[in-house]
């Protein structure tokens, strides 16, 4: 996310808006006909993998799905070799990997663009783009007062989002148990970008001041010590009662949710997480079409049909 300027993000969001009609299947397109996306997922995924696939297919492209368990990774092949080969079979790769920095490393060995679909506790930039798209649709982006709530230490979605929020002059409230605070390195970057950040342990302190509440689950799989996870389990929860205090606030969540959002919240009008998940399709369409149609056009590898 650190690579993006605000103009570039705005461009992607506008592009996504123009593609929403295709994302909903209301109009057909063959914009990406003949192009192949390789979905390379070394970690579980529902929304990211499927929405990349749907985005590609609804624009007329093809998809190959690679899962680590059924690949030569189990025979001990390293990521660099796999990327070298898979990139010779396709036009773009969406990579999810448990190691931080995996996508950046992969980009050095790939002959096609690599999209980071999540690198360990690092980043998840396409999630951030769809998060911003959701905030824009909800009319919150121009005056954003947002609480990032939960496991801010390990949740990559909030790491990427925080960098983007700094570009939008947002007031950022970091709400987490003490042991799950946003890493210092990210806070320093945000402050040097001029972001207004506030830190607290209790959502009650900020609920009246915000217009977006962005919750993440505790990232159980990232805890090196299960005892540490046991200590924080159930340490925060968004309830219907809390949301009654602020009618204006919308609740977002990258999903999956576990028990950090009370079930009663699902049916409240403030809950936007299911729509948010849908916006993964137009936003990933925008990213794919920029990389495969526009970006290619601007390079020597261009195809005259674009
Ligand atoms: C997130 C992820 O994988 O980081 N999921 C997603 O892509 N929507 C959030 C999570 O797993 O908690």
Description:
The chain is α/β, with parallel strands linked by helices. It folds into 2 domains: 6-123 and 278-300, Rossmann fold; 139-271, Aspartate/ornithine carbamoyltransferase (Rossmann fold), CATH 3.40.50.1370. Helix content is 37%, strand content 15%. The protein has helices at 6-23, 47-58, 79-86, 102-107, 125-137, 156-167, 184-192, 226-232, 240-243, 273-278, 280-297, and strands spanning 36-41, 62-67, 92-97, 114-119, 145-149, 171-175, 196-200, 212-215, 250-252. The strands form 2 sheets. A 5-stranded parallel sheet has the order 7-6-5-8-9, with helices on one face. Strands 2-1-3-4 form a 4-stranded parallel sheet. Helix 5 (125-137) packs across helix 11 (280-297). Residues 302-306 have low confidence and may be disordered. Bound molecules: N-carbamoyl-L-aspartate (NCD). Residues 47-48, 118, 124, 127, 155-157, 216-217, 254-255 line the site of N-carbamoyl-L-aspartate (NCD).
């Amino acid at each position: 996310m650190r690579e993006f300027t605000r103009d570039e993000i705005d461009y992607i969001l506008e592009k996504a808006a123009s593609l929403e009609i295709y994302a909903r299947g209301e109009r057909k397109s063959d914009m990406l006909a003949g192009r192949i996306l390789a979905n390379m997922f070394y970690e579980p995924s529902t929304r990211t993998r499927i929405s990349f696939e749907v985005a590609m297919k609804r624009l007329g492209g093809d998809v190959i799905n690679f899962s680590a368990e059924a690949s030569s990774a189990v025979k001990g092949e390293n990521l660099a070799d796999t990327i070298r080969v898979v990139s010779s079979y396709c036009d773009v790769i969406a990579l999810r990997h448990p190691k931080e920095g995996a996508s950046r490393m992969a980009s050095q060995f790939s002959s096609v663009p690599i999209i980071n679909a999540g690198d360990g506790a690092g980043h998840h930039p396409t999630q951030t783009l769809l998060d911003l798209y959701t905030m824009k649709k909800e009319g919150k982006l121009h005056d954003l007062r947002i609480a990032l709530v939960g496991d801010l230490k390990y949740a990559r979605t909030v790491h990427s989002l925080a960098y983007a929020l700094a570009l939008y002059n947002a007031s950022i409230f970091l709400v987490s148990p003490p042991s799950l605070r946003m890493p210092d390195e990210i806070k320093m970057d945000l402050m040097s970008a001029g972001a207004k950040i506030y830190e607290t342990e209790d959502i009650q302190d900020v609920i009246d001041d915000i217009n977006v509440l962005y919750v993440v689950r505790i990232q159980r799989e990232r805890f090196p010590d299960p005892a540490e996870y046991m200590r924080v389990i159930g340490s925060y929860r968004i309830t219907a009662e809390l949301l009654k205090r602020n009618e204006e606030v919308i609740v977002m969540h990258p999903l999956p949710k576990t028990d950090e959002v009370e079930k009663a919240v699902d049916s409240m009008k403030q809950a936007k997480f299911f729509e948010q998940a849908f916006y993964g399709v137009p936003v990933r369409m925008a990213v794919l079409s920029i990389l495969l149609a526009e970006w290619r056009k601007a390079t020597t590898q261009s195809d005259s049909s674009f």
